[in-house]
Structure formats: structure tokens, C-alpha cells
Specification:
Keywords: CBS domain. It holds the Pfam family CBS. This is CBS domain-containing protein. The protein has about 140 residues and is an alpha+beta fold. The chain has one domain: CBS-domain (Roll). Helix content is about 45%, strand content about 20%. The chain is built from 5 helices and 5 strands, in the order H-E-H-E-E-H-H-E-E-H. The strands form 2 sheets. A 3-stranded mixed sheet has the order 1-2-3. A two-stranded antiparallel sheet has the order 4-5. The protein is elongated, with a radius of gyration of 18 Å.
Length: about 140
């Protein structure tokens, strides 16, 4: 079973993209499109104020008739951010994500933001673990 630290170390980029609370929704979605990511953290200095996801855009901007250029990100972000630590296991993350219907989890270590993992990162890790177990079992059977 992998830990978040192991998952983060296997990612090609550990960059976490952020915007300030005064940024417009348009600025946020443009950054998300450029970086090909599904979420951004809203920060004030080192303090995390919230998270903004594609789901937030669909449910709080588009459906409600707000404009992307005229809406500050702070009005549509999800303020209650759930975090994990580098020691959290992939199974604990998967249970948290499925139970709370989340797709992204920021990773905090001693009060500092150190990364962000997605449901895709977890699926990739779990598949890799399963392939390893299958290979071991096949090796055992054929020896």
C-alpha cells in the first residue's frame, strides 16, 4: 500500500497551482485550461482559503448565470478544504475521496502545502500495485 509521499514522488510535476481570492473566475479557468488541470487552490499568502474545481464552475457559475469575468473566485470556491498528509495511505485517500465525492486532495506537511493528488493519481497507483501483485503471483505459480 502506497503513501501520499510515494505517489507525489512518482508524479512528473509536483506543482500546485494557486490564485488569490480576488482573481476572477475567468482568470482561474484560463489557468486551469493552460495547465490542463481540474482544480486550483485559493490562497492568501501561505494561507489556503479554498479550492476551486471544474465542478464548482459548472454548479456555481455556469448554471447560476454568473459571468466568469465579473465573479471573484472567492464567491464560488469551496471554502472547507479537506487535506491529507504525506503519510496518508492510498486506500485512506480513496475512501475519503469516494465517501466525500472529491476528485482532488491537497497535501499538507507541518502546516505547509507540499502537493496535490487527484483521483487519477490514486487510480494509477492502485493499478500499478495490482499489476505488481499479479506478476508476483504468476511468478510463484510458474516456479
Amino acid at each position: 500500500m502506497s503513501t501520499v509521499a510515494q505517489i507525489l514522488s512518482s508524479k512528473p510535476s509536483q506543482a500546485v497551482h494557486t490564485v488569490p481570492p480576488g482573481a476572477s473566475v475567468r482568470e482561474a479557468i484560463e489557468l486551469m485550461a493552460r495547465q490542463r488541470i481540474g482544480s486550483l487552490l485559493i490562497v492568501d499568502g501561505a494561507r489556503i482559503l479554498g479550492i476551486f474545481t471544474e465542478r464548482d464552475y459548472a454548479q456555481k457559475v455556469e448554471v447560476r448565470g454568473r459571468t466568469s469575468t465579473g465573479t471573484p473566485i472567492s464567491e464560488v470556491m469551496t471554502p472547507d478544504v479537506i487535506f491529507v498528509t504525506p503519510a496518508t495511505t492510498s486506500q485512506e485517500c480513496m475512501a475519503l475521496m469516494t465517501g466525500r465525492r472529491l476528485r482532488h486532495l491537497p497535501v499538507m506537511d507541518q502546516g505547509a502545502l507540499v502537493g496535490l493528488i487527484s483521483i487519477g493519481d490514486l487510480v494509477k497507483d492502485i493499478i500499478s500495485e495490482q499489476q505488481f501483485v499479479i506478476a508476483q503471483l504468476e511468478s510463484y505459480i510458474h516456479s
